[in-house]
Amino acid sequence: IYDNSNYNKENAIQNFIEFVNKKQRRETLNTPLYNFYSFWEKACFDPNYRDFARLGAEIYVDNYQENPEMAKYKWPDLPLCQKENTAFVDLVSGFGFSDYLKELNPKTQYFLVDKSMLTCEALRYQIEKLGLDNVRVIEKEVKSDISGDIEMEVEIIRAKNIFCYVPDFVEVIPLYKKMICDEGQFIFQEHSVY
């Protein structure tokens, strides 16, 4: 139980202790949980832990991704590019983008942007399993300039729940607007099951 958006260890410890119903053991659990979450945070971004992240991603995808509880929620439709040979850029893709992988348009090039190494490894693993050659993962913070990573015309930029993950995203909207071709779209979708 961890907030992979804000990486708040104190909240994670509190949530874990409440989840296991061990409030009376907070004193003894606090330090080991803090140490674990500190390791986890380091493992999420340190390239030296890429093999660890890949193994965790494979375990997650192969064993835990299909959550029956999530099946009752309808995901927003994925917008479609209208022009051939244009790019679709998805910002803060997260694990959720995997729900769309089997239905992507083969004539569109997809770029999935996320800063989490674990998330990116999970997406890469699924892309490999499905044999998709038109989907690329960009492992970067969305507030950085990604225009050099995309060498084609961008028709759609999609940002789902972006202000939840990047509250000051409004500051970089002009950077992304410059990337969009004529008659392209910048789409904000808000959807959360939480």
List descriptors.
194 residues, alpha/beta, single chain, 5 strands
Plain-language structure description:
With 194 residues, this protein is an alpha/beta fold. It is 36% helix and 17% strand. It has six helices and five strands. It has helices at residues 9-19, 26-45, 50-64, 117-130, 162-165, 173-177; strands at 87-91, 109-114, 135-139, 154-160, 180-189. Strands 3-2-1-4-5 form a five-stranded parallel sheet, with helices on one face. Helix 4 (117-130) links the parallel strand 2 (109-114) and strand 3. Helix 3 crosses helix 4. It starts with 8 loop residues before the first helix and ends in a 5-residue tail after the last strand.
Radius of gyration based on Cα positions: 18 Å
What profile does the largest beta sheet have? 5 strands, parallel
Order of helices and strands: HHHEEHEEHHE
Strand order of the largest sheet: 3-2-1-4-5
β-strand percent reads 15-25%
Q: Are there runs of 5+ residues with pLDDT below 50, and where? A: none
SSE-based structural type: alpha/beta
Helix content: 25-40%
Number of strands: 5
Provide a count of the helices: 6
**Global outline:** globular
Task: Give the rounded overall mean pLDDT.
Answer: 88
Distance between the termini: 14 Å
Kindly summarize this structure in a few lines:
This protein has 194 residues and is α/β, with parallel strands linked by helices. Helix content is 36%, strand content 17%.
